[in-house]
Amino acid sequence: MKKRLILDFDGTLVEFKPVERLDELLTPGYFSKLFVFENVVLAIQELYKRHPEIDILIGSKVLDAPHIPKDKDVIIDKHLPFINRENRIYIPYDAKKTDYIQITSCDYVLDDLTKNLVEVEESGGHGIKLLNGINANKRTWKGPAVHKDYPYTLIVEQLEIYMNLKEKENEMEKV
């Protein structure tokens, strides 16, 4: 089976901005104006160039408003256009991601929430925590992690190690 990297959106590719009122999140354009974690996006772009053999998907929860996936698509289209629409999975906010994305041992999920990563691992996949400066306060995640402020080259190297992509490079060098 082909390896997949499944990316969360809020708090992983873009900032998570706490709001005082829910209606702020429901304002059209809200999600398309969030600050992009540039090093994370650059790392995903580089990983895609180095490893075209892996599939890269988005697995993002959304509130029940039809414009929210479109807002998120604006950022994805601009920064990660190689992730086609079929590989952008928008999940109802109250649902488990693993109920909408069938997880296998070939799946690696980059997410900022420990709860989501635990569900992925319980489903047979592999979780990688994105540390974004506001999460990981309880230090409950004991698995692999990268920080949004790492240089993008380091994020790529860490993802390659966590996803066992380095082994293929080393094997090819021996030939």
Automatic annotation (TrEMBL):
InterPro entries reported for this sequence: HAD_sf
Organism: Coprobacillus cateniformis
Protein name per Swiss-Prot or TrEMBL: Uncharacterized protein
Lineage: Bacteria, Bacillati, Bacillota, Erysipelotrichia, Erysipelotrichales
Gene3D superfamilies, per database record: HAD superfamily/HAD-like (3.40.50.1000)
